[in-house]
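From the pipeline queue, job 12 of 40. The input is one protein chain; the requested action is below.

Action: predict structure.
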Amino acid sequence: MNIKGLRAFTRIMATGTLGAAAKSLHVSESALSRQLSLLEAELKLVLFSREKRRLVPTPEGEAFFAEAERILDSIEQIPEIANQIRRGPRRRMRIVAMPRIAATIAVPAISKFHDEHPDMEISLEIHPRRYMERWLASQQFDLGIGSLPSNHAAIETEHICRVPAVAVLPAGHALASRRSVHVTELSGDRFIMMPRTTLIGDQSAKILEQANFEPASQIQVSETPTTCSFAAQGFGVTIADALIPQVFGASVSVVPIEPKAFFDFGLLYPRDAKRTREIDRLIDLIKGEATSCVAGLGFD
């Protein structure tokens, strides 16, 4: 694998231009361009289209970006892995969680676990659901926490909680004091939605279809916390599970929607991986946090 090409590609994606990427890597633009071309030839992918001397990411480039970052992150961890080997065996646990469930369930559970096991080295990475299955199937992580269902043949799942779907509204919205709101009552609002290629985007779209409702104005973003951020800024409304808006406090109002709908969350395991005693204990803590969170929502 062309590591220099990977660094060139990710730096161009991060900075937005060939010139800025070359400057940050202390190489010439021509050298960086050659490294990128070699990577594209090796991968047999076109990562950027060249438009008027600008590099514009292709769909293939966008899809490859997250994977390239993970590869480089793994390479950068090699010195630390070597140090750990020299120091002797150390227990380690690798967890991946979705952004929409990390703060409310993963973080408090892992914090309690580490209080009990201070010698355990824990790695928690936050990634969208669409990447988790591949990484868990290849056993890059010991445990995943995310939305269900999962149909991957190499993944086992265990349900931990069911959460009502809610409308996330700006604070002070005219419907904020309602006990529930039908989605058609939001026809005058700008909708912030996830793309249908994501699990929550598809689930949310089905909720609207069930109500025969299509928003007149819609903006798509790639992560649920960002949809709620738009609502917190008073820019629009969104549909989410009732857990994620909790981190936004009084800046948003959360109202159950009609027709009623629910989102399911669970644990995802590599099917052939061995479950340790420590992982079983963390699972117990995660289940406890999930139960407490749902009970604390105050929704029927």
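Job complete. The chain has ten helices and twelve strands.
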